[in-house]
Design a protein that fits this description.
Elements lengths: L1 H16 L4 H29 L12 H32 L2 H12 L1
Length: 109
């Protein structure tokens, strides 16, 4: 969704200003995406290490370490997706079509 919106912004800018700055629009988006993924992996691995999880092949992990593995890779993404859905619903209720219509008509001109 964000890439599609960014492409629309870049195309709108190109149409209005007659210069293609797609790289400047997509660069920060992709950089923050990769940074977010890297931070998430770092935090997840640090959490697993603190819980005593051993990633070695055939390692004996405690039930707490396996529970931590489940939390990091299953429960955390589910919670984050649920929070983003709640935020999207709240934003949708806050912004009515009356407020969006002038914005859309200005960008279409």
């Amino acid at each position: 969704m964000l890439r599609s919106l960014t492409a629309n912004l870049a195309a709108d800018h190109k149409e209005r200003e007659h210069e293609d700055l797609s790289g400047l629009f997509f660069g920060p988006l992709l950089m923050t995406n990769k940074l977010g993924l890297a931070v998430a992996v770092g935090i997840g691995l640090a959490f697993l290490n603190a819980a005593g999880f051993q990633g070695d092949l055939g390692a004996d992990n405690t039930p707490d370490a396996l529970r931590a593995l489940t939390l990091v890779f299953i429960a955390t993404p589910c919670v984050m997706y649920a929070l983003s859905a709640i935020a999207a619903i709240a934003l949708d209720k806050r912004i009515s079509s009356d407020k969006i219509s002038p914005l859309v008509s200005d960008t279409v001109k």
